[in-house]
Amino acid sequence: MKVNPTQAKMYYQAMLARDNRFDGKFFVGVKTTGIYCRPICPARPQFKNVEFFKTAFAAEQKGYRPCLRCRPEGAPVGSGHSPLVIRALQLIASESGPLLQEADYAEQLGISARHLRRLFQAEFGRTPKQIAATLRLNFARKLVCETALPLTTVALSAGFRSLRRFNAAFKERFSRPPSDFRTAKMGSEAGRNSTSLITLSLPYRSPFDWAGIYRFFKRHALQGPEYFGENHYERVFSLKDQIGWLELHNLPNQASLQLSLMCPDPRILSLVVHRLRRMWDLDSDPLLLAQAFEGVPLLAGSYLKDTQLSNSGSPSGLRLPGAWDGFETTVAIILGQMVSLARARHLLAELIQLYGPSVLHPRTLNPVQIFPSPETLANAPELQLGTTRQRLHTIQNLARMVVSGQLSLSPAQDPQRFRAQLQKLPGIGPWTTEMIALRVLGDTDAFPANDLIIKRMLKAHPGLEIDKLKPWRAYAAIAIWEQAWVESSRESP
Fold first, then answer.
1. I want to staple 281 with a disulfide (CB 3.0 to 4.6 A). Which of 14, 320, 332, 449 is the partner?
2. Which position among 37, 41, 67, 70 bears the catalytic label?
3. Does domain 83-189 have CATH number 1.10.10.60?
4. Does 451 participate in catalysis according to the annotation?
5. Distance of alpha carbon 331 from alpha carbon 347, whole angstroms
């Protein structure tokens, strides 16, 4: 897609201002150097010496090399792609092993390999496999630049089976070997206790309503695997049979979350980052949402003031709370049917206590119970929990369907097909379906219209026409819940 002259002038002004809201939305090719940059790069080329691209792939196809200073591979994912391409990109990002064939991606998406290739050629000018290889090398360069991991470990993390092939692919992609990207400090630390604690940045587009999404997750916290500090998040997790620990801090001045991570297998690093980006909605486009919600009466109320969002009534920093683990969140939503949030959290704590495996905390070495796997709940003789027998049957049937492969909780699937399949399960109604689509699939248009809080708030604000907010109704639901929370907090003594 070409950038017209009007857009080019706007992009140039955004580049001069280093406006973080545009990070990942376009890239700047500098004709005099042959490199391309993010709009937040400190470089200031003249307007006559630049051209603009909607994607990094388009810049590279034109012959530009990525800037070594601003590192375009670290930009948040751009918006504007078709829903099917977005699901395909999610699927590609979730793969942590060797690259799959295009037919494998297409099969999981329910389309032909030829159609998938045609979509990618139209939007990126590259095949899905080429995009997958580029994304992995981008992640590898991030590890090289930000960590002291040995290059053999970085190669494994990027899905390469040999260091020789990794070095060759890396040099072809970035015109320099990976060792050239290492600072003297990192070079001296490489191989020396470098795998015990890994620190990475997870960039986002400002503004980012950290307080709002943090508050949401804290209200729904799992007792055991999750911990919420004064202003940080921790989790002990099991992923690909590996026990790990992570911690997140918000760094607003750097427009990123700082991830501290301990995990024994480097091959799951990219998967951890992918899950966290989805969980905290780090690739959201605040400008797009600001336009969609402009002038909405309900969103121009006290919620905006309390969260320091736009005075125009645009929820510019709003984020959609996702799921670290789809099965875990789905079970939590089922246990939350027709009960208070406090009761739902108690039931989850009871479930973890009764069925959750005990593991050693990777950092403190203290025992901690984590969420039970689908296999554990599927194979339990009969679930014992302080809720209805129907709800327990629903959870166990869900676990069995996930284990057998009858039901996928992957976000890389068609939301409507998923809804139809999910509602065949006894005990799953419209509210539960929409909540799962919102949290687990990240469907931006999911809307639990019969939620009690939403119904009450909509009755109090009859001017809000939800259908006009498509395809962003999920963000409206989050805003409504936050508005209700703010109002109830004010009423509390």
1. 320
2. 37
3. yes
4. yes
5. 10
